[in-house]
Structure formats: structure tokens, C-alpha cells
Protein: Proton/sodium-glutamate symport protein
Amino acid sequence: MNQHTKLILGLLLGGAAGLALHDTNLAFINSFNVYVLNPIGQIFLRMIFMVVVPLIFSALVLGVNELGQARGLGKVAGKTIFFTFVTSAASVLIGITLVNLFKPGAGLTIDTDLISQNAGTLSKLKENMLSAKPIQQIIVDLFTKNPVDSAARALDGEIIALMVFALLFAMGISLSTPTGEKNILIDFFEKILAACMKMVEFAMKLAPYAVFALVFNSAYTFGFSIFKSLLFYVFVVVLGLLLQQTIVYSLILKIFSKISPIEFVHKCRDVFLYAFSTASSNATLPKTLEVAEKSLKLPPHISRFVLTIGSTANQNGTALFEGVTVLFLAQVYGIDLSLGQQVTVVLISILAGIGTAGVPGGSLPPMMILLQTVGIPPESIGIILGVDRLLDMCRTTINVSGDLVIAAAVSGSETEKYKVPSDSLS
Ligand code: ASP
Structure:
């Protein structure tokens, strides 16, 4: 059985078993989940997270250095930023249109149980919100005082500062190397990147079991009942994400990369499975890099640059989710948001998508701030926490898909020869 089939089986069996056993409350299953399955899932995630810092650093240094040497950095960076804004804006607009159309929150009575069940998570999120920084400090903090400290806290929101350091460092390497020579540091980072990818292969061996464990855990913990009252809201988010994939991404692929959207989905299916199961763009990054180079055949210096930055800075699914959720909660509370406030929601959702950490639940802290900004009680987020894991799995898939779409579009628009041949299924 090939790896892909095993992954699908892990996903389906994990989901089915988790849902089927949710209501049984058998001590044996509880213990098996806590002592066996949960650790398997966590170990798998950690085996990937442990390489995220060296992987992101070396991939960015190599990408930027090559782009710098070819004098292509400015153009590629400019196009990446352009596509990030276009795709994020499109996704938020899709979400906001749907939520205004379907009004999933109108007439819904607030289930205070949903809020109190999540009291622990809520109080942590609240603490986070109170320590939120003003905008000028956010910009200053993009430039780290201490890259080692940023590396140590990379998965707690410091990854962007580390990326900025990597970018400047790579420009330093490129500019300090005489034309035609290869800097010894480039060899060094190539070897680090290769070693990281090998390490990820170890984790991939565990993947089908870990996917089973992770999906079982979510399904078993939350079950179906949690969805009943929020079914309409979940439907709106998922429909929005599907529209983003089928309309926005397909158009971009067709116009800029010449790769057919169906072929894209076919070649990227393993990436989607990883993103869905791990709910983390950062944990999916090694697989994303591999597929971009081996299956989509994108030029590595472009894909490394776009994908590493995108794993944190391009999160269209998250932006859509934020927009929908804020308007949904406003409907639940009967708060009528003015046009100006809705525009604020759109803008902050786009920025939140850019500033969200690529880890499970990374979008919840910025969401609390967004709610506060437009005058909705931030603790209302408790209403949706129960379904957040499932939505996180879905939006992460679209986040990662968006990174690959942008990498294909930038590659395609950069030079003719990088246009992906549409007849080469691999
Ligand atoms: N889990 C998402 C990601 O890693 C971020 C989020 O929306 O919470 O892409």
C-alpha cells in the first residue's frame, strides 16, 4: 500500500472511529486516547516542529541568496506581496458576502454552556489580548534584537522576526560574495536543508498512524453534537473555503501558471492531507517544499522563498475564517456593524491572516483583538471554540494551498520557462 493510501485510511478511520466512540465514555478508550494516541500525534508534530527553525532559516537564506545573485529578489518579493494581498482580500470578501447572505448567527440563542466549557482556553486568550502591542511596536519588533532569542520563541509568534533576520543575513551573504564565487556558507545551508528534509522523512514514516491519532483525538473529543447548533456557521466557513480554492485559486493558476487546477489538486493531494491532519502550515512546510520542487517542478529558489514566507505570512483560509466569525458573532449578539466597521473587519482580517502563526489555533489571539476592536465581547469566541479544531484543519488546508498557488503564479509569471507543463502528471 502506498503512503498516500495509508494517509487517507488513517484520516478516514481516525475520524470514523472517533465519532463512533465519542458518546460511549468507556474508560478503556479514554485511557487509550490519553496515553497512547495523543502522545503519538504529539510526537509526530514535534518531530516536524523541531526542524522548522533550521529548515525555514536555511530555505530562506538559499532562496534569497539565489534570487539576490540573479537580481530577481525585488521582483519576486513584490509579486509575492501582491498575490498575498489579492488572495487574502478575495477570501475575506467571499466570507463576508456569504455570512451576510446566509446570516448563520441571526436568531441563534447564546449557549452560555459553550462559553463556560471553554473557560480555561478563554482566560489564556484573554491574557494574550491584554498584552497586545500597539501597531508601531509590532513593526519595530519585526526587527529582532537577538536572533537566537527569536529562534527559541519561533513557534510562539517570533517566527516573522526570525525570517526578517534570515532575509537580511542572506542579502549580506549575497552582497559580500564576489560575482561568480560560491560562498562557503551557502554550501553549509544547503547541507542543513538536506539534513532537515531527511529528518522529516523519519516523521513521515510515522505519519499514517499519527494522522489516525490526531484525527481520532479531535473527533473523539468533540463528537458530532457540538456541531448541531453551529452547523450553519460551519457550513458558511467551509463553503467559503471551497469557493476560494475552486474559483480564486483556479483563476490565478490558469492566468499566471498555466497549470490546470485539477492537476494542481492531484499533485498537491498529500500536502492537503498533512495540512488537514496537523492544522499547521509550519508543520506542513517540509512537505510543501518537497511537492513544489518534485511534483510541481517549480524553481527551488522561488518556491523556497515564497513557501517559507507564505507558511506564516499568507493565510487566506484564516483571513476568511476571521471575517466570517466576527460577523457571525455580531449576528449572534444582535450587534449591527456599520459599513465602516465591516470595512475594518475586512482590513484587520487580511492583516490577521498575514500575522497569524502557522500553528494550530494560531488565529485565535488576533481574533480576540479584532472582536474587541469592533465592539463585540471578546469572550464570545468561546461559542465557536468547540468547532475550531475542525475549522482549523479546513482553513489550514486552504492556507497551504494558497502558498503553493502563489509559488506557482510567481514562478509562472517570472519567466516563460518556469510555466508548469500542464500535461506532466507525476
Ligand atoms: N492553523 C492555521 C495554520 O497553521 C493558523 C490558524 O488559522 O489558526 O495555518
Remarks:
- Residues 417-426 have pLDDT under 50 and may be disordered.
